Amino acid sequence: MTLQIPADLLPADGRFGSGPSKVPAGRLEALAATGVSLMGTSHRQQPVKDLVQRVRSGLAELFALPDGYEVVLGNGGSVAFFDLVTYALVRERSQHAVFGEFGKKFAKATKAAPWLADPVMVEAAPGALAVPSYDAGVDVYAWTHNETSTGVMAPVARPEGASADQLTIVDATSAAGGLPLDPIQADVYFFAPQKSFASDGGLWLALLSPAALARAEEIAASGRHIPSFFGLTAAIKQSRAGQTVNTPAVATLFLMAEQLDWMNAQGGLAGMVARTTASAEALYTWAEKSDYATPFVPDPAHRSLVVGTVELDPAIDKDAVRATLAANGVVDLDAYRGIGTNQLRIAMYPSVDAADVAALTACLDWVVERL
After folding, report:
1. Is 79 helix (H, G, I), strand (E, B) or coil?
2. Contact by Cβ (8 Å): 260, 59
3. Taking residues 267-293, what's their average pLDDT?
4. Is 301 helix (H, G, I), strand (E, B) or coil?
5. Known binding site for L-glutamate: residues?
6. pLDDT at site 124
7. Is there a contact between 296 and 150 (Cβ–Cβ < 8 Å)?
C-alpha cells in the first residue's frame, strides 16, 4: 500500500517542477475571465500588441533596465536562441563557460556553425562553477546564469579586461526573475517564460544593450546568410512595434504578463530574490543537517536560489521516495538525466513559497524513515 503522508505535513502546493514550473492558483481562471477576448485575435491587432507591450514594460520595470537597453522577444524558446546567437551575434569566435548540460548545448551550437571558429571552452565538472576569463581573440563571452541541470548559479559580471567590442551573452532561462542581476553587466540576457515567469514555453525574451543592438545590425548587413527564423534585427523591429515576427502563443504572453504584474507588485526583483533566498535557505539548511541527504553543489556560494539539487544516501531508493511523494501530491522532483547518482531536484522559483519547501523537507524525512 502507498504510504499516506499526514495532511498537516504536506505543502499547501506540492508542485516543484524545474520547468515548466508551477503556475499560481487563479491564473488560468484569469485567462478564461479576462483573456478570452485575446484568444483568436491576430497578433497584428491592437489587443495583442498591447499585451506584448505589457510584457515588455513589465520586464523593463522588473530589471530596472538602463537607458538604451531594449526588451526583444521572438518564437522558439531558449534553445532556439542558442542558434540565433551563432547567426546574429557572434562575429568570429566565442568563449563559453560550461558547467552543466545547458551551457554545453550553448557551446555546441557555436561549434557546429561552420562560419565560426571553434569556441574557446572554460569547463568545470557538474556541481562546480566555471567562469569566463579575458581572451583577446573572442568577440563574445557566453555562460549560464543558472545551470538548471546541476543547481549551480554563476555571477553575471563582465570578465575583467573585456573590451567594449566583446559582448557578454548570458543564458538566464531558469535564473531570470529569481536571481540578482545588474543588467549593465550583460549585453544579452535571454530567457523563456516557463520558469520564474510561471507560463508556458515556446518564446524567447532578451534584454539587449546598445552594443548588442549594434552588433545585430552589423552582422545583418555583413552578407552572412541568416534564416528568417533567426533574424534578430527583424525581431527587434517587430518588438518595438509590440509584435513578434511570427504568430506567438497569446495565452503564454497573458500568463507571463499576469506573473510580471504580481512580481512588480511584490517588490520587484529584490522581492523575488528575497523569496527564492528564503526557499533556498530552507532546503540547504535541512540538507546540511540531514543524515541521509547533502547538497549536490559543495560550495555554498554556488548553490542556486532557484533550482536546488540534493544527493541522497546510496542506500535510499530515490525512485521509491519520489513515487510515494507523487502519490501524495508532491511532484516533479526528478533530477536532470545523467546528473548525480541518487538525486532530487527542487524548483524554488518566486511562485514557490518557502513554507512549502520546508514542508517538502518534512515529508522527505517522514517518507525516508518509513521506507
Report:
1. helix
2. yes
3. 98
4. helix
5. 18, 44
6. 98
7. yes
CA nearest neighbour of 97 among 140, 68, 59: 140
The grid coordinates listed for 70 are 531594449
User: What does the CA dihedral 237, 243, 249, 252 come to, rounded to 10 degrees?
Assistant: 100
Torsion angle in degrees (nearest 10) through CA of 362, 333, 269, 259 = -110
The amino acid occupying position 101 is: E
Contact (CB, 8 A) for 49 and 38: no
CB 49 within 8 A of CB 242: yes
Question: Which tens digit of pLDDT belongs to each residue from 163-213?
Answer: 999 999 999 999 999 999 999 999 999 999 999 999 999 999 999 999 999
What is the rounded CA–CA span in Å between residue 220 and residue 246?
Answer: 19
Annotated binding-site residue numbers for pyridoxal 5'-phosphate: 102, 148, 171, 194, 246-247
Q: How many CA atoms are closer than 13 Å to the CA of 99, on its beta-carbon side? A: 25
Distance separating alpha carbons of residues 191 and 240, to the nearest angstrom: 18
Q: At what angle do helices 101-112 and 77-88 cross, to 10 degrees?
A: 40
Q: How far apart are the C-alpha atoms of 319 and 316, rounded to whole Å?
A: 9
Residue carrying C-alpha cell 556541481: 127
Task: Pinpoint the alpha helices (H) of the chain.
Answer: 27-34, 46-62, 77-88, 101-112, 210-220, 232-240, 250-265, 268-289, 318-327, 354-370
In whole angstroms, give the CA distance from residue 16 to residue 321: 15
* Cell of residue 34, nine digits: 479576462
Annotated binding-site residue numbers: 18, 44, 102, 148, 171, 194, 246-247
Say if residue 20 is preceded by a cis peptide, omega within 30 of 0.
yes
Q: What is the pLDDT of residues 35-84, one digit of tens each?
A: 778 887 777 878 899 999 999 999 999 999 999 999 999 999 999 999 99
Where does the pLDDT of residue 357 fall: very low under 50, low under 70, confident under 90, or very high at 90 and above?
very high
8 three-class SS: coil
Residue 248 DSSP SS3: coil
Helix and strand numbers (H, E) in the chain are 10, 12
- The bridge status of strand 152-153 relative to strand 167-171 is unpaired
Neighbours of 222 (CB within 10 A): 9
